[in-house]
Amino acid sequence: MQDGFHWSSKNVHLGASHFDMKVNDPKLLRYGQQLSRTFYLSDSGTPVSWTAKLEVAANEQSDLVSFKIGDLQLDQIQKADAWNTNGQLIYHYRLYDLNNNFNAIYDDVPLEGWWPWPKKKEQAVGVRRNGKSRKPVDVHKARVDIPKSIEMMYT
């Protein structure tokens, strides 16, 4: 966790991707979205030190069809949660509830890579280098010192 959470399209299991067409899913509707596409990722090392589930949400199926993993940006993350191998919550991030974010392992030590919080000031989530805000997205699920299960949701 302290070394950062780094991944790329090479970590994606392409054959496992699927669409979720539950138009009235309350989880998606909370974010103003109707449909989602799920990707599964894992560490390329042996043994595997983390696995992840990434959900991308949209209102139009065509947006999900044309979506590419490389399109994601850190400032789009709306939420992220991480659990250790015992199932205990160790990391919690919500873009719209910043006062309740926590990292039970490293407190407020800036984290590298895809961890949305905390970041060094110049890497603050939600603000692009040109100062303009970007439409937020969503992430959620990992493990202790070495993330084991990371679930992300982007809208």
Summary?
The chain has 155 residues and is mostly beta strands.
Describe the overall structure.
The protein is built from 2 helices and 7 strands, in the order βαββαββββ. It is mainly beta. The chain has one domain. The strands form 2 sheets. A 4-stranded mixed β-sheet has the order 1-2-3-7. The model is unreliable at 124-149 (pLDDT under 50).
Supply the key terms.
single chain; 155 residues; four-stranded mixed beta sheet; three-stranded antiparallel beta sheet; 6% helix; globular
Describe the secondary-structure layout:
Layout: E1 18-20, H1 26-29, E2 35-42, E3 51-58, H2 61-66, E4 79-83, E5 89-94, E6 102-103, E7 149-154
Parallel strand pairs: 3-7
Antiparallel strand pairs: 1-2, 2-3, 4-5, 5-6
Distance between the termini: 24 Å
Shape: globular
The tally of strands reads 7
Helix-strand pattern: EHEEHEEEE
Mean of pLDDT:
74
Structural class: mainly beta
